[in-house]
Amino acid sequence: MKKVIILLFACALSLGQAASQTLSFLQITQDPAIAGLAGAGVAVRSISPLENNLADAALGQDKLRVAASYTLWQPKVDKYGLVGASASFRVIPKLAVAVSVKGFLSPAYQLTEASGLVGNSFKPMDLSFAAGAAYQISKNFSAGVDAKFLMSSLGEGLKGNTVAFDASLKFASKGLEAGLVLSNLGGKIKYGEASYSLPMAAKAGAAYTISGFTASLEADYVFSAGFMAGLGVQYAFKDMLFARAGYHYAASDKLLPSHAAVGLGVKFAGVSLDATFLLASSTLTGTLAFGLGYSF
Asked: In this structure, what CATH number is given to the domain that contains residue 104?
């Protein structure tokens, strides 16, 4: 019992307080450009649509989007990392398919036996494998659905897996975009005899673009964890150079507490490179995200 308590306590420290839910890393975007908008990305284009709003993959001119990213997560607390890769492809003019993989890496910690002796070290890890499809219902409206296979390993004898689903909608017309996503719908994940809820959430947002400037606003409700909101702005110079900033609001005990974000991006011949830095937070300041993508 002592061993179980120590392992669960270590997991709580690594992922932050999230009520009775686990796999909270699913709330962290793997797209640095969206992170630069403080996460307000449900209504805007993303190089990783399955991560933000899959329905977006069926709108616009892109036939292919591929991306890889790495985030050095809250380095002032410990050595956490978020890695991700994704791809979306328009199979026919109105139908796109997408896949992604995402992993949250926690620092290793020492196992303590019931006798009090220190044993081997263990490195917790959470993984998500997702696949889905998006369909353009009309000129300005699309919908998407995807499924995720989730794996979590907190310690020896504390491993679990489950399945979750997302549903998304996207509207875009003359500079105005709007999105709605229901994410992480599904059952619980079980570690030994204990079960924990997934971070199910409802997300809604809108964005408007004029003369290279984009303003994006998003409101999220995470069941069992409460309300969050984000506001982001971006300036694009000839669709080649990008400057971003944003602010995310949430309670201080959440995985994503209130923080600010600034980011830069460059795009040439379909290749994009983005970087974002988080600040104005006691736990997230110093978080740095990098991403490389290609689209045409």
From this structure: 2.40.160.60
Statement: residue 8 has pLDDT above 50: no
Please measure the distance between the N-terminal and C-terminal CA atoms of the chain and give it in whole angstroms: 54
> Which whole-number Å values give the CA distances from 29 to 118, 166, 275, in the listed order?
36, 15, 13
- Name every residue whose Cβ is closer than 8 Å to that of residue 66 and which is 6 or more positions away in sequence: 86, 87, 293, 294, 295
On the 0-12 / 13-18 / 19+ scale of CB atoms within 10 A, 157 is: exposed
Distance (Å, whole) CA 31 – CA 263: 11
Q: What domain range is 111 assigned to?
A: 2-295
Number of domains the chain contains: 1
- Name the band, by pLDDT with cuts 50, 70 and 90, for residue 74: very high
Helix, strand, coil % in the chain, rounded to nearest 5: 10, 60, 30
> Tens digit of pLDDT for each residue in 243-269?
999 999 998 888 889 999 999 999 999
Residue type, 64: L
Q: What are 67's strand-pairing partners?
A: 86, 293
Specify the 3-state DSSP secondary structure of 4: helix
